[in-house]
Amino acid sequence: SNDLADGLIKSGENILVTGLFNGSLLFDKEILETKNSGSDVFIAAFDSNCNPKDIFILTGESSEFPCSAFASKTGVYVTGEFRTEIKIRNEELVSAGKEDIFLARVENCNAKNPLHIEAILMDEDDINAGWELDAGADFVEYSWEDNSSNSRYFTTNTPGKYSLTVTDFFGCKYSGEIELTPEKSASTIEDLGANDFKLYPTITSDFVNWQPASEWLNSNAVVKVFDSSGRMVKNSEVKLISAQSYTINLSSQTEGIYMVEISGDNFHQVGKVVVKK
After folding, report:
1. What is the mean pLDDT of residues 173-180?
2. How many of the other CB atoms lie within 10 Å of CB of 115?
3. pTM (2 decimals)?
4. What's the burial of 117, exposed, middle or buried (CB within 10 Å: 0-12/13-18/19+)?
């Protein structure tokens, strides 16, 4: 019957098309049908080669249609109008009036940042002291080294590679590794291995990374971000810098030029980043 594409957006490595359809809709080898009179809303996901991956249907008792779609680091959002009730998989919304507005959120695990593991020396003056590995607080499940630890922290005094799998609130799973060396420094498997300070990418819509110079290792650093007017918009501290890249979240900032200042004992670096949405 009548099918209409309303929006095309990119989220991570996925391409998503949203729109409405009547009657039946063919997606890959699957035929989807509206259950009642009127139109239903679809959100179809494709990989970077345009191969079909997944489809979500928002179905109701009358005609539903999307109005806008956009992507963020946490998923894809579609807003539109519906009457009476609307369902998406196991969730249901009931209208409080003649026409109500819906906001549907589809989690996209692949669009998120990779897992970052931080290694902290327990005592840098003690050659026999170990490390405390920290996976961060943004997850609900942690699994270190064949379930040897199920918290965000893992403590060891043995050099080597340590793996971790985490699960966030929405069920997205991430895996990562970190390598601890006998010299009491730590580096992630993705470590670029360069000795100079790096700030990248210089043009971004959300996150920017910085890699410390080799002489900064095991020092503390203060990270500040200033907007074009000189106002400080972010201020954080890194304890015991290790040989890995660190991430600064600029997704909440407006478009413009920002200065990233990283300073500590005997070092000071300033870099420029352009935020474009």
Report:
1. 82
2. 19
3. 0.47
4. buried
